[in-house]
Amino acid sequence: QVQLVESGGGLVQPGGSLRLSCVASGSYFSINAMGWYRQAPGKERELVAGITSGGSTNYADSVKGRFTISRDNAKNAGYLQMNSLKPEDTAVYYCHADMNILHGSILRMYDYWGQGTQVTVSS
């Protein structure tokens, strides 16, 4: 069973920091791109940050300079370091990964989502 398990969310004051983690487990061959998405009540889910297997990153304009996405393939993990948090960052954050799954002798790519972790920025 392939899973992405998220952790690290919580309640912080404006200007504070949080570090989200996403750990993959189960039977998979490799992970291609990974990303973090967020969804606030009444709003659509949006891409916050993404990272390719080669380490290239991209960020939503609203988080550039404040958030950093990274990955550690040896630990089967992805991370989102969030600094200078603002109330508008409040949302449920979801880890996403494109994973290569081995079926016999062939590889197929599937996308997986974490369960979500709540980030609340409030004074």
Describe this protein with a few key phrases.
mainly beta; four-stranded antiparallel β-sheet; 11 strands; seven-stranded mixed β-sheet; 123 residues; elongated; 0% helix
Describe the structure.
The strands form two sheets. Strands 2, 4, 5, 6, 9, 10 and 11 form a seven-stranded mixed β-sheet that branches. A four-stranded antiparallel β-sheet has the order 1-3-8-7, with no helix packed on it. 28% of the residues are buried. It contains no helices and eleven strands. The mean pLDDT is 95. The protein is an all-beta fold and 123 residues long. Strand 7 and strand 8 (77-82) form a beta hairpin.
Question: Any chance you could write out the topology, listing elements then pairs?
Answer:
Elements: E1 3-7, E2 10-12, E3 18-25, E4 30-39, E5 46-51, E6 57-59, E7 67-72, E8 77-82, E9 91-103, E10 106-113, E11 117-121
Parallel strand pairs: 2-11
Antiparallel strand pairs: 1-3, 3-8, 4-5, 4-9, 5-6, 7-8, 9-10, 9-11
